[in-house]
Each structure stands twice: as structure tokens, then as C-alpha cells.
Design goal:
By secondary structure, this protein is mostly helical. It has two domains: about 130 residues; about 55 residues. It is flat and about 70 Å long. The two termini are about 45 Å apart.
């Protein structure tokens, strides 16, 4: 069950990060068309947000890699005559030297802790920092320690403000009704498929009951939203 919980947590992280990526993407679009900002401010914000897109894209890749490696570690594919990395080999993209190190480190995790430690360092480097340059940020290498920390704090606040604004606008433009309708459609599709099955395992029967209960709750929410209009 712990293994399943770990997969679920990683799935939630991936979906959350993809949503953050989309929010930043939309934010860049609106900033470029914001007539209240001068060109310098627009350029700075787009540079910052593009860097945030890169960070989130790296996060998505890393989380996906973690998820696949976690899956493979629990499958024991060698017992049925398949290579241990069979799943990841089917979805692997073009690899850089860093990707190869990450993959090899995951594979050697239980055998060589030093190699895995090196991968952890690389992982942190790839994820990047949550900072954005402000209009007054000066080169940090030229600053005293006290001023450097002050600038870093301002840069973190800038990152927090911009990402919060991006999420806020993204959420504000997403209709609750649309979210509920999409969820209902997905659940109905799975429920219909399960009902059509001639025989259901104990696990499938439990899933059907859970989905039917969730569907009932969502339909009630849809009625409430409809009455509130």
C-alpha cells in the first residue's frame, strides 16, 4: 500500500506542476499585451516567467522519471523475462549526459550510495531556484553579504508574487461548472466500462462503488451550481 501511496503522491505532484506550468504560460501571454506596463517592465517579467517555465518543465521531467523508476523497482520485470528498465526504455526521450547520470544513479541506488548522492546534487541543480530579478536587482557578486541577502529576499518575493498572480488569473478564468462537468464525464466513462464487464474482481467492484459514490456527489454539486445561477 505504501508503494501505491508513493505513486499517488507523485501523480498529484505532476498534475499540480503541469497546472502551474499552464498558469505561467497564460500569464506571459497577458503580460505581453498589458498596455499599462512599459517595454522594460514587460521584458523583465517575460524573462523571469520564461525562467520559471524552464524550472517547472525540469520539475515535470524529474517527477516523471521518479515515477517511472519507482514503478520499475516494484514490477520485478526480470522475473518474467523482461529487462528491468523495459517501461522507461519505451518512453525515454533523447538523453543528455545529465540524463544518463540520473538514470544510472537511480539504477545503482541500492548498490552505490555515493553515485546516488551525486545524482541528488544534480537533481537540485536541475530543479533550479525560486527567484526572479526585480527592477532594482544588481549583480549579486558585487554586493556585501547583507545586501546580497536583501536582494535575494526581494527576488523571492518577486517570484512569489508573480506565481501567485499567474495561479490567480488561471483559476479565475476556469469555470467551476466546466471542472465538474469534465470530472463527471470521466467518471461516467469508467463506470460505464466497468458495468459492461461480465465479471468484476474484488478490486474492480470496490472501484465501481467508490466512483458511483463520487459521481453522486458531483451531480449534487452540479445541481447546486445550477440553482445558484
Amino acid at each position: 500500500m505504501d508503494e501505491f501511496d508513493n505513486h499517488s503522491k507523485l501523480s498529484e505532484q505532476i498534475l499540480k506542476t503541469v497546472e502551474e506550468f499552464q498558469a505561467i504560460f497564460v500569464r506571459i501571454f497577458y503580460i505581453r499585451r498589458n498596455a499599462e506596463l512599459d517595454s522594460n517592465e514587460i521584458r523583465r517579467k517575460i524573462q523571469n516567467l520564461s525562467q520559471e517555465l524552464q524550472r517547472l518543465d525540469n520539475d515535470i521531467t524529474i517527477l516523471r522519471e521518479r515515477q517511472v523508476h519507482l514503478l520499475e523497482n516494484g514490477l520485478h520485470l526480470e522475473e518474467i523475462g523482461l529487462p528491468r528498465d523495459f517501461v522507461s526504455s519505451k518512453i525515454r526521450r533523447y538523453e543528455t549526459d545529465q540524463d544518463v547520470l540520473m538514470r544510472d544513479a537511480y539504477s545503482a541506488r541500492e548498490e552505490d550510495s555515493a553515485v546516488y548522492s551525486e545524482a541528488d546534487k544534480l537533481l537540485e541543480k536541475r530543479i533550479g531556484s525560486k527567484f526572479m530579478r526585480t527592477s532594482t536587482t544588481a549583480p549579486l557578486c558585487e554586493q556585501t553579504p547583507k545586501k546580497k541577502w536583501g536582494y535575494l529576499l526581494d527576488m523571492f518575493r518577486e517570484w512569489k508574487q508573480e506565481t501567485n498572480l499567474a495561479s490567480g488569473w488561471y483559476i479565475s478564468e476556469t469555470k467551476i461548472e466546466d471542472i465538474v462537468d469534465k470530472e463527471i464525464a470521466k467518471i461516467r466513462s469508467v463506470v460505464f466500462s466497468l458495468i459492461q464487464s461480465k465479471t468484476l474482481s474484488e478490486e474492480e467492484s470496490r472501484l465501481l462503488s467508490l466512483l458511483q459514490a463520487r459521481l453522486k456527489n458531483l451531480l449534487q454539486i452540479k445541481r447546486i451550481l445550477s440553482d445558484a445561477k
